[in-house]
Amino acid sequence: MIISKLAGSAVHVCKGETFSNLTIFPLAAHEVRAHGYVTLDEAIISREAKVTEVSRGGSVPELALENTGTRSVLVLDGEELVGAKQNRIANLTVLAPPGRLTIIPVSCVEAGRWSYSSDEFGTSGRTLYSRGRASKARSVSESMRFSETRSSDQHEVWNDISAKSQRMNVSSPTGAISDVFDRHQDSLRGYVEGFGTASDQVGAIFAIDDRIEGFDLFDSPQTFAKSFKKLVQSYAIDAIETAGPLFRAPSEDAARRFLDRFEAAQIERYPAVGLGEDVRLTGPGVIGGGLVVDDRIVHLVGFAHQTGSRGGPSDESRISRSRARRYRSFE
């Protein structure tokens, strides 16, 4: 059992809770422990770390994280950084070691700006919307497999954000996904307040309407609790699109079967950008990835495949585009 082995303890799917059309199944585990890090939010607030462009001119797919503290800094897959020349999201989870400069692979989520609003980045308290994270996870896995880089398909990210903005009736002068979240902040607050966390909860499986969409799993309840609001908003901003009175939430057994598909997935390992190893999971109808340190999960994410009918191109079109045109950098 890959997930239980890497988690260091059995992971249990618990009874789900539903608010509007979003259902969350808690993932509980015992005898887990964090790897002695601080979150990116904490590190920036305490000035233990700062994130900047890699140079004054900048490079779209990379940011520089300078960790001057004594603890490693955890950057989450899909976490948004705002400011500098344009807003970005992390392409995968990174554990940046203390006393070092770490170059973080990122994607732009603000296509219409390339000018400084600040010298340093701040955190937005958000991750990218869940279906965008799923698409990015697939393209990053392809990039790692075929070209040994951690790039997303940047044009696909921009196109997906544009389509998302149109569906949610948001006009952004710079094409920023942050404007979509800001426009719907009242609805998002309702979703966040509709759920809570348990003391032994290390993750969650998320479902929108009758479809299980994905999961996030951490190495400690403390890290999960700190990340919970971001994750709820990530799925809720997609749930808002189809919210209505008539739907049937998936069962607890369906959630277990979803997680079992990742237990049977193919696993690939790569040296991480910071500490540990990057792992990528691929199986029938699922894709995922995460960070493992000392053979234990720090953060693992997984998603159901998103097809053209649910807001993204087919696997075949993605792969052919990925092979034909690898995104490197725009300067």
Instruction: Describe the sheet with the most strands.
Output: 9 strands, antiparallel
Global morphology: globular
**Strand portion:** 25-35%
Order of helical and strand elements: HEEEEHEEEEEEEEHHHHEEHHEEEEH
Secondary-structure-based class equals alpha+beta
Oligomeric state, counting identical vs distinct chains: single chain
Low-confidence blocks of residues: 307-331
Query: Could you give the distance between the termini?
Result: 44 Å
Count of individual beta strands? 18
Quote the average pLDDT.
91
- Which percent range fits the helix content? 25-40%
> Whole-number radius of gyration?
18 Å
Number of helices: 9
Describe the structure in your own words:
- With 331 residues, the chain is an alpha+beta fold.
- It is built from nine helices and 18 strands.
- Strand 8 and strand 9 form a beta hairpin.
- Helix 3 crosses helix 9 (315-324) and helix 6 crosses helix 7.
- The radius of gyration is 18 Å and the shape is globular.
- The relative contact order is 0.19.
